[in-house]
Amino acid sequence: MERITWDQYFMAQSHLLALRSTCTRLAVGATIVRDKRIIAGGYNGSIAGGAHCTDEGCYVIDGHCVRTIHAEMNAILQCAKFGVPTEGAEMYVTHFPCLHCCKAIIQSGIRAVYYAQDYKNHPYALELFAQAGVRLVQVPLKTDVFAFLASGGGEA
Ligand SMILES: [Zn+2]
Ligand SMILES: [Zn+2]
């Protein structure tokens, strides 16, 4: 297998984080990167110490699970909690961010969003990202990344 690209490496990290999700509706992972280094990561789940959707079911209002904090928010809040600047950083996320996360991403000074899958891509989110000059790039995760890991890293 060829050496993994940085884009694939960070996107794989976001997909690994998604495996930690506690919401049964959708598993999302997000990684914040600066100068090719991971500075924070998050997945969608309950607030620390809160009940998990996986244990008690989702708390659905108007078609959305309100129990969880989104992966993008969790990653940004991790930076807030530990005093890590997000200005000029980049985010890798498994799914196209919702409108709330879009606004938080822009406001936190993140300059680029790489997402693997389309997910209800909100036209207003697209408009806001464009307006703010945030680079938006779809980077699908290559499945051979995990196939390679599952193989134990050796020759197939
Ligand atoms: Zn849920
Ligand atoms: Zn969101």
TrEMBL record:
GO terms for cellular component: cytoplasm. It holds the Pfam family dCMP_cyt_deam_1. The active site is at residue 72. The keyword Metal-binding applies. Its cofactor is Zn(2+). One of its GO terms (molecular function) is dCMP deaminase activity. Zn(2+) binds at residues 70, 98, 101. GO terms for biological process: pyrimidine nucleotide metabolic process. Keywords: Hydrolase, Metal-binding, Zinc. Residues 5-132 form the CMP/dCMP-type deaminase domain. InterPro entries: APOBEC/CMP_deaminase_Zn-bd, CMP_dCMP_dom, Competence_ComEB, Cytidine_deaminase-like, dCMP_deaminase, dCMP_deaminase-rel, Deoxycytidylate_deaminase_dom. This is ComE operon protein 2. NCBIfam families: ComEB. The lineage of its organism: Bacteria, Bacillati, Bacillota, Bacilli, Bacillales. Belongs to the cytidine and deoxycytidylate deaminase family. It comes from Geobacillus zalihae.
